[in-house]
Amino acid sequence: MPPTTHPGSGSGREATHRALLVVDVQPTFCEGGSLPVDGGHDVAARIADYVKANRDRYDLVVTTQDWHVDPGTHFARPPAVPDFVDTWPPHGIAGTPEAELHPALADLHPDASVKKGAYVAAYSGFEGVDDVSRSLRIILTDAAITDVDVVGLAESHCVRETTIDALHLGLRARVLTDLTAPVSPAQGAAARADMASAGATLVPSTAL
After folding, report:
1. Average pLDDT, the chain
2. Is the separation of the CB atoms in 125 and 60 below 8 Å?
3. Which residues contact residue 108 at a Cβ distance below 8 angstroms, ignoring those fewer than 6 apart?
4. Which terminus of the chain is more exposed, N or C, with fewer CB under 10 A?
5. 24, 147, 149, 165: which is the annotated catalytic residue?
6. Out of 116, 130, 147, 149, which one is annotated catalytic?
7. Which of 132, 18, 102, 111 has its CA nearest to residue 61?
């Protein structure tokens, strides 16, 4: 009997277990937030619509959130000026409305939620843990995940780092390019080149 294939795989040859990683879709990274990305609110709405229409493609849906308590020099507190490379304005502060999932995702009901960066800078979702201290790697391993689709904010930073870490762990990774947005066009282009070079597939969700 041939091996089964999850509906999201499309390979027809090998068993595939796919997760959707929804990275840092939080008001703090959207227009009006502490560290906004242009188009952030639109990305949140498109992700919500995509998940509603495509939840059955995925064995697992996992969200990540910046959840900073005191991340040290990651925050440039006044009078220090952020360089927007290693230091940033305070954002994603644990327990504040800005750090919660975007309201557009209120009906998402993820299978797992990972928070990262409490006391250190953390860009990749793989640096976070859920409320019982499971890392993202353990969550995916326990669900026998082989493939991930990555969406969220910002493409040039946390989406990039999460995608590259997934590849380093031996997972196949796709970035759904219409469900993310970069800090700037130039940084977005650089991130896409880095992710593609690392082995990621970049594709709009409409092409799946």
Report:
1. 93
2. no
3. 22, 48, 51, 61, 63, 101
4. N
5. 24
6. 116
7. 111
Cα gap 121→139, rounded to integer Å: 21
CA–CA dist 194, 200 (Å, integer): 9
The SS3 assignment for 136 reads: helix
The secondary structure of 42-93, three-state, reads: HHHHHHHHHHHHHHHHCCEEEEEEECECCCHHHECCCCCCCCCCCCECCCCE
116 is catalytic: yes
Nearest alpha-carbon partner for 181 in 113, 94, 102: 102
**Tens-digit pLDDT profile for residues 79-131:** 889 999 999 999 999 999 999 999 999 999 999 999 999 999 999 999 999 99
| Rounded Cα distance, 170 and 181, in Å | 25
Instruction: Catalogue all structural domains in the chain, each as residue range(s) with its CATH number.
Output: 21-65+101-117+124-207 (3.40.50.850)
Active site residue 158: yes
The one catalytic residue among 59, 66, 158, 165:
158
